Backbone:
């Protein structure tokens, strides 16, 4: 390969990756959920309302997906999603997903274990249970990433 060609290729690669990571385009997230999970559908709507491009996969058996994602039963919730190499488990607010992608910590992903009332997709009138968004690693260890309700 000539050095001129090599420089050209490097420039091309640079512009391609620049386009892929550049700014304001909608980020695509892959969501695995059971076909008849209502609150999962409401969470998908929450993501769409916040400009995520959601790729929904309906499946009746989420267990192998959760196992592969490194989710322990203590972290598990109703749906499992993947974005940019991270796992998003349960009713995680869109703003926390954005913060995760921005801060890009070394971690497996975020989880809201169970299904706390008041989290996105789990609204029930004015009721808002206290819940935490957890940042977890591939050994099942976690720390608090965000506390709700805020303030
Ligand atoms: Cu749910």
Residues:
């Amino acid at each position: 390969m000539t050095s001129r060609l090599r420089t050209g290729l490097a420039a091309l690669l640079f512009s391609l990756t620049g386009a892929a990571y550049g700014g304001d385009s909608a980020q695509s997230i892959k969501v695995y959920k059971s076909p008849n999970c209502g609150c999962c559908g409401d969470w998908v709507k929450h993501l769409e309302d916040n400009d995520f491009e959601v790729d929904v996969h309906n499946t009746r058996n989420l267990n192998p997906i959760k196992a592969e994602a490194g989710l322990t039963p203590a972290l598990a919730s109703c749906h499992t999603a993947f974005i940019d190499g991270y796992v998003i488990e349960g009713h995680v607010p869109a703003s926390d997903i954005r913060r995760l992608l921005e801060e890009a910590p070394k971690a497996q992903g975020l989880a809201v274990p169970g299904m706390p009332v008041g989290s996105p997709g789990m609204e029930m009138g004015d009721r808002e249970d206290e819940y935490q968004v957890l940042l977890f690693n591939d050994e099942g260890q976690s720390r608090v990433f965000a506390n709700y309700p805020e303030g």
